[in-house]
Amino acid sequence: MANRDEDWVLGDDPDELGGPPEGLDEPFDDSLDDLAGAFGGGGFGGVGAARLLAMGVFLGSLGGAWFAGLSTSDFVAHLDRQVHAIHCALTPGEGAQLGDSGCKAVMMSPYSSFFRDQLWGGLPVSLWALAVFMFLAYRSLSIVVAGPVRKADTFFLLAATGLPVGMSAGYGYLATTEVGAVCLVCVGIYVSSGICLLFAALAHVAAPAAAGRVHGVGGGGSGLGTFVLGVGEGTAFVVALSLVYLSVVPTPPKASREGCGELLRRDDPAGALLHMSPVPGGVPSIDVLDPLCPACRAFDERLETMQHARRLDKRTVLFPLDSTCNWMVGQSLHPGACVVSEAMLCIGGAVKGRPGDPRAALTVRDWAFEHQEELMEQAKTDPKGFKKRIVAQFPAVKGCVGSARARSKLTKGLRWAVRNALPVLTPQLYIDGKMLCGEDTDMGLDYSLEHLIAGRGGAP
To answer: Rounded to whole angstroms, what are the CA distances from 203 to 94, 116, 133, 278?
Structure first.
């Protein structure tokens, strides 16, 4: 064998061939020990391994802080009541985008922040996530660079990483079941949380049981002392970042507390408004609705999740943005909205000579909300078939939809809107005569509703 390195193959007897090629006779454990030794340990199953694995927690926490910071920056940008692009990608550096996305849906949901009715926009959950990941980065780095490592240190790190994992599970469930959307930036936070937990568990297994000093402010102490100290430090991170946020969050405009206008006349002598959501003793309110308006559907879905909205004794004026019945729009923004509105009036008992219950109109509205896109498309391409579909779905409106009485009642509702000089847009909500500002139907909705309801236009 002239060249033993080239001729040696798996299965040959090393004794006959003179041993494996140079470099293959070194045990793999030696490499691990060398790597662990770089972190101050004498072997992979001890202090060095714990530090090496704690570095994994550190890197995972940096990733979580990146995603949480990105989400927080988008949240803060929207506090000026304007429209902004939103980041919604797992890859760092990908640009923000305008329009609907899972990240926008989650951010606009009531689950994205705490104390929404006391603070403009609320305190974003992502801010506290950022504080937690910063704390995890601090604790894991202290294990990497400090002196001897104890089980108490790694046990607390493991327990601390359980917090973002638990929150990720809870908020992931809410996003998919309640909001019905997936936020990719949130997924980045979930994955980072899992990485932190995994490496923290491995670090705890690898850490020696021998005594050593406790990392963090103060040092020393028992395992319980380590835990209490860590909880105090983590709380300090959250409180400090919250105070910084509160010091820079913009003050909401006066209109958000007092409304953006007032109805000229609230009475309805023609009986054109539907009392679909009666709340005895509730706060009188009027909403302006187009049943085929996507923004109306989204607004209604948000209201249904809010405690404040359950106090509203609500009447509805139908305002279809459809030129076939509404002379205030030049072209039909929502084709078919006039027919659906007539169906709501017919089944709701608003049309003279037609029995009905105003609350039954909610069934028509909810069905129209659920099938908005296909209904508008059919109304545009097949108006007669569209009308037949409405009647087939709700037989009680047969002979009423398309009648002069139904169209007259719908026209009276539009004239009520003209008499009150309402803007040509939907949705609109008036609470005790005060108009909820259009800019406050997203981030500031809870705050504005709290003030308009509790103070009737003043501070609560």
So the answer is: 33, 39, 17, 59
